[in-house]
């Protein structure tokens, strides 16, 4: 049951990071509120870091030897994390473009 909780934590934090990035982009695009966008991006990075900590812990427990069973939910969690990582990076670029064109 603990493994399932860790996987759900990975999914939850990754999804939260993703949601925060979209909020940040909206703040930049619709309101020109780059300070708020920056704060949301910081929160997204913190959520992403929490998710990454879970992933790192699971990798360490597995030790590359298949100790942790890979189920569909684990693949789903990894997919969420990788999408969140990409979106945080892309979100920074999108916000920077909005900031540049907002002047």
From TrEMBL:
Mg(2+) binds at residue 79. Keywords: Magnesium, Metal-binding, Phosphotransferase system, Sugar transport, Transferase, Transport. It comes from the Bacteria. Its cofactor is Mg(2+). Coiled coil: none annotated. GO terms for molecular function: metal ion binding; transferase activity. Binds 1 Mg(2+) ion per trimer. One of its GO terms (biological process) is phosphoenolpyruvate-dependent sugar phosphotransferase system. PANTHER family: PTS SYSTEM N,N'-DIACETYLCHITOBIOSE-SPECIFIC EIIA COMPONENT. This is PTS lactose/cellobiose transporter subunit IIA. It comes from Izhakiella australiensis. The lineage of its organism: Bacteria, Pseudomonadati, Pseudomonadota, Gammaproteobacteria, Enterobacterales.
């Amino acid at each position: 049951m603990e493994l399932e909780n860790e996987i759900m934590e990975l999914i939850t934090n990754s999804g939260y990071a993703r949601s925060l990035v979209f909020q940040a982009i909206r703040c930049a695009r619709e309101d020109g509120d780059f300070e708020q966008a920056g704060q949301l991006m910081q929160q997204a990075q913190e959520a992403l870091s929490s998710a990454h900590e879970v992933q790192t812990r699971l990798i360490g427990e597995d030790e590359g030897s298949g100790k942790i069973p890979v189920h569909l939910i684990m693949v789903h969690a990894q997919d969420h994390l990788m999408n969140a990582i990409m979106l945080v990076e892309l979100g920074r670029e999108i916000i920077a473009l909005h900031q540049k064109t907002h002047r």
